[in-house]
Amino acid sequence: MSMMMACWKQNEFRDEACRKEIQDFFDCSSRAQEARKMRSIQESLGQSESLSPHKMTKLLQRFPNKSHLI
Predict the structure, then answer these.
(1) How far is residue 52's CA from residue 56's CA, in Å, rounded to a whole number?
(2) Where does the CHCH domain lie (predicted)?
(3) Structure confidence at residue 68 (pLDDT)
(4) Does 11 reside within a domain?
């Protein structure tokens, strides 16, 4: 997106001069949208990656549950 904006600024916001940058941006955004859809489908089907025991232990050590006394 920054490449497209920089091109627009250099070419006084003319789309014709920045056609390649605009197309690259649309291609990138469509790939990102497809990736989000696939990730959502995988999560809904329970196919998302789970954390390894080592990673889970590290996270629990970094963010422990603190007990509260009443």
Answers:
(1) 6
(2) 1-28
(3) 64
(4) yes
Whether residue 43 lies inside any domain: the answer is: yes
Residue 47: inside a domain, yes or no? yes
Global pTM reads 0.57
Q: How many domains does the chain have?
A: 1
Q: How far apart are CA 35 and CA 40, in angstroms?
A: 9
Stated length of the chain: 70
Burial of 24 (0-12, 13-18, 19+ CB in 10 A): middle
**Residues 15, 9: contact at Cβ < 8 Å?**
no
